[in-house]
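Notebook, p. 212. Picked up where the previous page left off. The plan for this session was modest: take the two constructs that came back from the sequencing core last week, fold each one, and keep the raw output in the notebook itself so nobody has to go hunting through shared drives later. Recording the first one now, exactly as returned: residue sequence, then the structure token string.
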Amino acid sequence: MTLSESPAAPVGEVVLEADGLTKHFPVRRKLSDIFTRKRAVVHAVDDVSFTLRRGRVTALVGESGSGKSTVARLLTQLYPRTSGDIRLHGETTRVRGGRRFREYVSRVQLIFQDPFGSLNPVHTVRYHLTRALKIHGNAGTNDEELEVALAGLLTRVALTPPERYIDKFPHELSGGQRQRVAIARALGADPEALLADEPVSMLDVSIRLGILNLLRDLKERLNLAILYITHDIASARYFADETLVMYAGRMVEGGDSESVTQNPAHPYTRLLIDSAPDPDRIAGIAEASTKDRGNGEPPSLIRPPSGCRFHPRCPHAMPRCSVDLPPRLDVGGEPGHWAACWLYDAQTVAKEGVGSAADPSIPTPPALHAPEEAR
């Protein structure tokens, strides 16, 4: 088995699509709710839509609890969706196990956040990779071909020489090496899409850049579509072609990474960027007015706020924000840059008598730099 480095499929081909993806988790009923017949649910993900394309990285950014990891598990069909559609090469997919599930995950693989928990501590690297190759039919027909395939996977993730790592147990590897093994295991399926759920957040800062560069190399060599889930918007700018911002289960902004990170439109995106550490603007953060910093905590997803879910924390909230859910509105400037914010609706702005978010009177955070380790 060899991983193709020059697939015939063109760069930009649509691999995976989420259309109106929604996931609600039921909450255990209280005694008082039994008599009123209420059934509470957690609105983990609501109406999420985006597209993953070959040879491109899409970043999904948001704070903890915003629903990012739930989206990844929905796309890999580990969770059944409440509503919405998942399309693989334009075909609707809904699988629950068995042969059809294996066929699906051979094309869409998930890399978990925790490299310490995603590998079985009682088995060697050889076992983990061999199992992946055999399950997905890429182990060859004899032991010699299997050894070649194993060596190829380890070489692909820069664990060389392969014989140095193949018979080690997870506890004998560093955190970065374990994550590379997890990535190699995903590549054993020869996938078309990789869903990386915060793949560097549990690693030392000094080795995060190496993992991101490895994923970038895989994207280019294997023409993969990658979903990069992170809470670090600075790394999204460095690594991703497109950035989508998620808050309390809903998408609030999207566009190419340069536009979203350098000219943020939604007040929540501005808050994320303003919160990103940058020695060049520590003084600016210290002097910032608290009214522009987005005070408060994320809302309860059992009873989410009506209208825009960010309005209780938004320094620019208008009366309409608490009533009506904003659609995706074009920001202007770069094509494809949008924000789900009433500040970009001309009629609303005129009626409320406020400036738009593009107005210079509304402060914009300083330009966001690449992560320190990327400089």
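Okay, moving on. Second construct, recorded in the same format:
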Amino acid sequence: MLAIFNLGMFVIWLTGPSGAGKTTLAKALAERLQSMGYPVEILDGDGIRSKLYPDLGFSKEEREMHNKVVTEMAKMLAKNGIITIVSVIAPYRDWREYARKEIGEFVEVYLRCSLEVRIKRDPKGLYKKVLNGVIKGLTGFDGEYEEPDNPELILDTDKMSVGEEVEAVLKKAAELGYLKLTPEVA
């Protein structure tokens, strides 16, 4: 196990279709960083949407507005000394690039997961609804999701444990100079 010493605040931006494991990884990362004494906040796209503007739809324009709100929140938190983990689909590359430019200290992590596994996981019952014809345009199924061109990290969440994912993110943050990893003293 490694101890982590913070060199600066930054944003970890988790992106991927529904069921890829964004919320699960965000919680595990936050727990790990908090257990070491770091201030951490999770900005979960669904949580923000349900609390701040529950009537907001899912048109491209409404999603863009949501992404801008999340970006601004992440930027403010990081600026004020809080490691911020963003867990949001953000289906369009240009929106994620906007977030990267606005925030600066940014680690984009693409959670790649096969459709079959996402359908099995189906944490919100969305795949069941789309397969039954109840909804259409599910991002990453019959709705658009643009995979990142150059994320700092790609995690195949259908092949890795959550613990392995956490370690990979922390190591990448260290490689980028945001964290310093040192062997933990027993």
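Notes on construct two before I forget. The chain has seven helices and seven strands.
Flagging for discussion at group meeting.
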